[in-house]
Amino acid sequence: xxxxxxxxxxxxxxxxxxxxxxxxxxxxxxxxxxxxxxxxxxxxxxxxxxxxxxxxxxxxxxxxxxxxxxxxxxxxxxxxxxxxxxxxxxxxxxxxxxxxxxxxxxxxxxxxxxxxxxxxxxxxxxxxxxxxxxxxxxxxxxxxxxxxxxxxxxxxxxxxxxxxxxxxxxxxxxxxxxxxxxxxxxxxxxxxxxxxxxxxxxxxxxxxxxxxxxxxxxxxxxxxxxxxxxxxxxxxxxxxxxxxxxxxxxxxxxxxxxxxxxxxxxxxxxxxxxxxxxxxxxxxxxxxxxxxxxxxxxxxxxxxxxxxxxxxxxxxxxxxxxxxxxxxxxxxxxxxxxxxxxxxxxxxxxxxxxxxxxxxxxxxxxxxxxxxxxxxxxxxxxxxxxxxxxxxxxxxxxxxxxxxxxxxxxxxxxxxxxxxxxxxxxxxxxxxxxxxxxxxxxxxxxxxxxxxxxxxxxxxxxxxxxxxxxxxxxxxxxxxxxxxxxxxxxxxxxxxxxxxxxxxxxxxxxxxxxxxxxxxxxxxxxxxxxxxxxxxxxxxxxxxxxxxxxxxxxxxxxxxxxxxxxxxxxxxxxxxxxxxxxxxxxxxxxxxxxxxxxxxxxxxxxxxxxxxxxxxxxxxxxxxxxxxxxxxxxxxxxxxxxxxx
Length: 645
Hints:
The chain is mostly beta strands. It has one domain (2-644): TonB-dependent receptor, beta-barrel domain (Maltoporin, Chain A, Beta Barrel). It has six helices and 37 strands. It has a 22-stranded antiparallel β-barrel. It has a five-stranded mixed beta sheet with strand order 3-8-9-6-7. The longest helix is centred in the first third of the chain and has 7 residues, at 28-34.
């Protein structure tokens, strides 16, 4: 392992938040300061340089410049992330962090949890890149602050706010190969005491054949609407809210499990499809008192996820809901005579109720959790920064859980920063694992306990040449216990149990960003991940499926012609990884070959208000698989126009 790590030779990706809208000339300094804040790091925001956690921030500006259409494709270049798309664009897409499971990653949009209650994970196939201000990514256990499913990390997609005392809008249209069409529009603005932003995106693709058999094209249709507002009710009291709606339908191909079929276990053409409707919203108030020393926040969020699966063998559906209420209070104070320190104490209470209604059972299942959480932040001598969190979850259907988190950052010099974190995480059993039922196939287990994890990481960030080159290297180590796994009976029916033993994950994340301030910029990243299942008595410790040991990316861009023109290229590499196969002529596990995908593109601004752009994906037409039996997209090209007003 040491030889592999030393041979990696790349340096960590450290992306910065793009500039946000500034309200007025007098607010410029405050706006610039907010650009360096991590909203998701704990119960309260913190400047990036004071965070002890491994994080990545992808700005909305970068998403636009790289012409990324799906958030999952942006996450492919984040250290520690592995993306598995089943089939065509918009197809079911799983994201795994540091070798963990997909439901060990908490996903939020504007602070609202969006994972499905049935599976506990979020299908990234539905998440278009539209009107995003930034994506904040935290790696490592975060359950002390965010509860269940934040076992391996958190992804928070933050959409754009309106700019006060102004009004603006934009529209774009895009077309490409495989019958692809995309249109989007956004409107935003505000007055002296309020701001509002609305956006809509509509995407359709005819797709390609995801099976090796036949010639059927598998496409995707997606409509996404998003809105948010904020208003100052007084100098001390503010109100804000969000609302999001997604309607999507995706074509799928089934696996052939007809006895005696020559394609048994393989993906074949079929009329299968899945349709989802997502509705998420939130409303909250913030009150500031004691000259800003005391801040109180209350928020209510809600979400509904309806999924319908249409197959040749029949139609099924499920409906899940999640409602959350949160209150927290933070108090700041200084102790100038003691290490020139500043402190912040935060305490909060959270209530959550989840429901799950499957089509095959005439019953709605529900469960509730009451949580108490506390946080401490401290800054000492303006060089050492500490964050600690403690959480107690009281669950009504399974065991209670206590989680903690501790992180620190130390600025050795203006160019060198150490960071480290340690903590625990939990992931509750999914509703399907507890109560799911598939006739003659699967029976849930209502006696499951939450999965538990302990993890830590340590790293160093180094700046060279006055910040033109920023590098970071992080080592991580995480163990999983109480892992929920499928077991099969002698009659081929299955259920789930909590396994004994420990699943281990460890590795290193390294990369760098370079900005020469002459129009040329570049970045590189590399991740080594060693993820193994719990050891079976007398057997080997098997590798976790769909987690490549080696992955990385390189990107470069050049701006010229007074910054009106831009060209870019990027290369993404995934090493070999294992997957499961149910083909009689193959072993139970197969190795998916390594892959290298090259993308290029460019843009040109005709005027301040009109821009043309184009992108070619998979330039070398690489043939590879992310999931066994499912083809991936070959060479494709897209062209679009964007106008602003």
